[in-house]
Design brief:
The protein has 124 residues and is mostly beta strands. Helix content is 0%, strand content 48%. The protein has no helices and 11 strands. It starts with a strand and ends with a strand.
Length: 124
């Protein structure tokens, strides 16, 4: 069965950087669109960034453009989220997700598989 496991979440000071990783197994990783979502305490899960199956296309939420960078390595079944210039409002549980169908979609309901999340806390 498909499994996604996030790692890398930590407590970090505002202005700092983190790199999150998502390890995928049990699926043909190179055929899946991947994405990162986040959910802050008391808020809905929101789209952060997505990346096409090949890695050739990305789309970012306006809130993270210029600060976050998504990447994937299909030879290693890995996806990454480099987060720079972190802000307290970035504090959330970050989830990696996978979907089979292509297209620039940002709804959580479009995604088929989810990791359990990793906590990112940005202190002021």
């Amino acid at each position: 069965q498909a499994q996604l496991v996030e790692s890398g979440g930590e407590l970090v000071q505002a202005g700092g950087s983190l790199r999150l990783s998502c390890a995928a197994s049990g699926l043909t990783f190179s055929r899946y669109v991947m994405g990162w979502f986040r959910q802050a305490q008391g808020k809905e899960r929101e789209f952060v960034v997505g990346i096409s199956a090949s890695g050739s296309s990305t789309n970012y939420a306006d809130s993270v453009k210029g600060r976050f960078t998504i990447s994937r390595d299909n030879t290693k079944n890995m996806m990454y989220l480099q987060m720079n210039s972190l802000k307290p409002e970035d504090t959330a549980v970050y989830y990696c997700a996978a979907r089979r169908w292509p297209g620039a979609r940002s709804s959580p309901s479009d995604y088929d598989y989810w990791g359990q999340g990793t906590q990112v806390t940005v202190s002021s």
